[in-house]
Amino acid sequence: MLHPDDQRYKSDHPLDLKITGHSAHASIAAYLPLKATCEFDVFGEKVGALILQRGTAARTFVWGWEIQGTHVYDLAQNLISLYDALQEGLLNIPYYQVWSLHIGGEATSEDRTRQLLELIERNDNPEIDQLLVSEIGRVQHLARSGLREPKFARLYVTYKPQADQQGRKRADRVEAFGKEVYEIWSTLRDWISGQKTQKQLAAVEEQFRTAFLRGYRSAATLLSGTFGLAVRPMSEAALWTNLRHRFSGEPAGHSPNRVSCRMDERGVRLRSELTGELHITGHLIKDYPVKCDPEWVYTRRFDPESGDIRDRYTGILRATGQYKSLAHEYHQCRVFWDLLANESCKDTEFFIQLTPSDTRIARAAASELYRQSIKQFEATASKRYYDAASDESARQARDALRSLYLGDSPLRVGFCVLIHRRSLADLDLACRDFISRCRWLELVREYVVTHRLWLQTLPCNDDALLQYKIFGYDYARVKRTGAQFDRRIYYGSKEVIAFFPIARTLANDEQGIEFIAPDKQPVRVDFFHPGMEKHWCIVAAHRSSKSVLANNMADHALAMGQPVTWLDYPPADGSSTLRDRCQYMGGTHIDIQLESFNLLQIPDFSGLAAEIQQDRLRSLTGYWIQQLMILAGPTGQDLQLEQLARTILELSIATYLEDPLIQTRYGTAIREGFGSQAWQSTPTLKDFARFVSREKLESRLANLGDRVQEALELLQFNLGRITDTRTTIGRAISLPSTVRLDNLLTVFSLRNMNEGQESLAYSLAAYSSAIQKSLSHPISHVLIDEAQNLATHAGVLKLASNLATTGGKAGIRMGLITNSFTKVAQSVAGADLLANLNTKFVGRIEAGSVDPLAESLGIPVQLLNQCASEQFYMNRKEGYSNWLIQDYKKHTFGRWYAPWESVVLSASNANERLVKQWFFDHFTDKHEALSACTRYFRYHWQSEQDLVIPLSLDHLQTFMPQSPCSV
Fold this sequence. Notes:
alpha+beta; 15-stranded mixed beta sheet; nine-stranded mixed beta sheet; plasmid; P-loop_NTPase
């Protein structure tokens, strides 16, 4: 039974735990001042806000921004300008605003799982489905292990009208006094005349207008202008969702009390919308009860992936003093990223509140600290002892006074660390571990008012962070006692930069292939969606998972219905992982030396719009000219003859395509399809050779100069040579195609390629078929394995370079996989090819490859040195490889956790292939065979045992597949 005084006190202070030891769940809703969410629509610009109000006090508005910041690996290049901009911006924070930063991450795979499930729904290939399900299992395993944590950085700006008005009063006391007298007189007049309601409504509208201009607009201008940061304002729905997420993992839904404020040339219009019976703060806590304790806060959260409701205990750490000096401004800007990059740092959030302080108060506090420190130091010195702590305090106070007198603006910083775990034992261990790792700042765990500090970190609370009262009851004197605490710390504008973290790992794209950065931030690279016209390359030493990564890119493209054409350069015996993978995926594997390819085949453009069809046909004829110039054009350095030959080919192709009989034969062959009688009559290079003659081009050759006949005879001679179907070259490129190219996955095997003309013809046939297939789809992919072989033929390398230069407009994405670009980069065409690669993936490389790759790929040497270190070796036991990603000059280090089924399917070691073939021979269902084989491989890799062929199926009971997904 509580004392009557305690009962009255408890009703006024429902969250004080000193009396009963616990807090009622409903008291949290009564304590929070949130009244409504608000959507501002100001001349078409829509932003969200939270409206707070305690009793009859003035309304307080809270705005939110998502901070993009600066990419951590590019920080050194922009450090000076960023540092100066940050210091200038912090000096200009208005006195009537409070800036609160919320930084952290949450171990979840919900976003990635949703993307992969959408791919599975769009895909109709069961083999691709199996690999995507395996990738889902891998991502969820990473989230459960705490290795995948999407990070966020949010800024909340609280506009306090009362502080704004008080500041204006201090600026001009005479004007403020006159205004107060006028307001009293006008209030009395309106009450007598009956216009009080209209005046109140006008005052509310003016309050919203002033809040937007003085709150949102001034902060947004400061962020984008002085700070120079890339920020995105949060909408009303985003603010409500983030707020609800602090209490529950359930879908947020709509705010039950929503205010719309529209401002335009007609003025300010307000509209309120109530959709629930509970107060808005009641909706925050309606799902699961919040238990408050002096040492922790307990919440329950719904996990949408597993469907379970999980316990969550939260502990709070706070700073006890100013941080120790950091070595350099560079470390000051990235100190939070270093904390988040630690593998043991998971489910951790940082809250920083910046409040502009009165310079006079800060100066007085620094002076008092200086006097006390000097006094303490002198008292110790009189006893012939040296007090290092007092000497250091005096030095810091002296430096603070000097900076204040030189115009520095002090800020009061409230700093808290929230650590979340599923049990109290884990929470205690995590708090102790974090305190031991945070060496630059002395932290202690809060054991008295954890609940109050947790509520102060909510954006819907206008209390100052780390400022609170603790009350007790003195039974001896029969009276209430209490103490006011303010744990905030004064910092100058230079020191406070460490609490305004701008350095972080910036995500590249919203979808695509996913890597995990050192701070566990997912980084995706997208080659598959419209607007992502990127060509890419993978450079890594042998046994570094470069083929597995390239195959995963191909799998995603196939899942989206985009054709993938591989140009493979296998060993002389023709063995290749792409051959096995193509067979499993149901693709088409083509040995280029055993088939015929029509170099002048026109794809079926019927699935494209008419305008796109014309563009693709022009692109196709451009590729024809390039190929014919390589095969039949002049080979010397005679530029005039080369230009004449090119012009003749352009005129011949135009005449060739305008011929009615040629058009009819093409149309009939496309309509009746592969293998039909009309297909055998498809126009070929042999038909085109008849149009390269003076009889066909007489009217068009009149103004081309004196050397026309020389160029024409050269082309006729060479075309006659390559169209002779009795030769190997003629059979390869001058007959109707003998293979279907309508399969989404096609692999061309270019084995035994040398520097001869036959190899050149085979290579061009493969490139021609890849281009024909790609142009018939909106987006397509051409991948070249062992791309260092491009340097074998200068013409092929030039064709690949032109494809990279112009293919993006036709929706073609080119990918190169190699272990060295040294030979390719030595030619002009090779340099042009490398210049058109937008995205580069560098895995483990040899130390001797650092300088050549830095020169050819344009990647800094200090970054490539890390790729040559031992830490970059692939971890077969954990199943990840390390990569350096350069995407449009932005560099990121990341781990790629390959789906286990994809790793096994791409296994290329001779022993691994034998074991894999044994499983496929002994299982009737190939999906079960791959799943069992994956479990078998994982067991031996993780136990570091040698792979051996199983004796029989009876020895594989523990590896039998229970589902097609293996986590």
